[in-house]
Specification:
Layout: E1 29-30, H1 34-61, H2 71-90, E2 92-95, E3 99-104, E4 110-115, E5 119-125, H3 128-132, E6 136-142, E7 149-154, H4 156-174
Antiparallel strand pairs: 1-2, 2-3, 3-4, 5-6, 6-7
Helix pairs in contact: 1-2
C-alpha cells in the first residue's frame, strides 16, 4: 500500500494561516491515507462480489466454460488498485491569504481557486461508510452554481477546523463588499 503524501510541501501552518513555501508556492496539504483504504476496500468488495455472482450464475445456467467471464471483474480489480492510489495522490489543497486552492486529477489536472469572499456556505459531510473509516468531506458553495469545490476524505477534526476557518475568512472578506 502506498503511503506517500504526494505533496510539494507540508500541510497548512499550525497557526491556521495560509502559509507559503520557501519559493512562494502555497503549502499544499494531502488527503489522509484512510480515503485510499476505504476506496480500495470498496473496489475489492464490488469486484469480488460481482465475479462470484457472474461465475455462479453462468456456471449453473450456461456451463462451466462460460463462468470464466467472471475473470473480467477481477481484472478490473487488478487494474483499478494502482489507479486509485494515483487518484488519491493527485488530491491536495492549500490555504492562501485570499483564497483556497484545490488541486486534483491525473490525466485531466484541475485546479479550483475559491476566493474567501465568494463563499456562501461551507459544509462538513460524512456518510456512514466515511464515518466508519473516520473520514469527513468539506463542500464549498459559492455564488457560481457550477463550482465543484469539495475536499473529500479529511480527518473530521481537520474538516471542522477548515470549515470554521473558511467561514471566518468568508465573513471577513464579504463584509467589505
Amino acid at each position: 500500500m502506498e503511503t506517500g503524501s504526494g505533496t510539494d510541501a507540508g500541510g497548512p501552518a499550525a497557526d491556521g494561516t495560509g502559509a507559503e513555501g520557501p519559493s512562494g508556492e502555497p503549502a499544499w496539504a494531502a488527503l489522509p491515507p484512510g480515503l485510499l483504504v476505504m476506496r480500495r476496500l470498496l473496489l475489492a468488495a464490488w469486484s469480488v462480489g460481482l465475479a462470484l455472482a457472474v461465475g455462479v450464475v453462468l456456471g449453473l445456467l450456461v456451463g462451466p466454460g462460460w463462468a470464466l467471464i467472471a475473470l473480467v471483474p477481477l481484472s478490473v480489480l487488478a487494474c483499478g488498485w494502482p489507479l486509485l492510489a494515483r487518484n488519491w495522490r493527485s488530491w491536495r489543497y492549500a490555504e492562501r491569504a485570499d483564497d483556497l486552492l484545490i488541486s486534483r486529477g491525473v490525466l485531466w489536472h484541475e485546479q479550483t481557486v475559491v476566493p474567501y469572499g465568494r463563499m456562501q456556505l461551507v459544509e462538513v459531510t460524512s456518510g456512514p461508510l466515511e464515518r466508519r473509516f473516520g473520514l469527513a468531506g468539506v463542500q464549498l458553495h459559492t455564488a457560481a452554481a457550477a463550482t465543484d469545490a469539495r475536499i473529500p476524505g479529511l480527518d473530521p477534526a481537520e474538516a471542522e477546523r477548515l470549515r470554521d476557518r473558511l467561514t471566518e475568512l468568508g465573513e471577513a472578506r464579504s463584509a467589505g463588499l
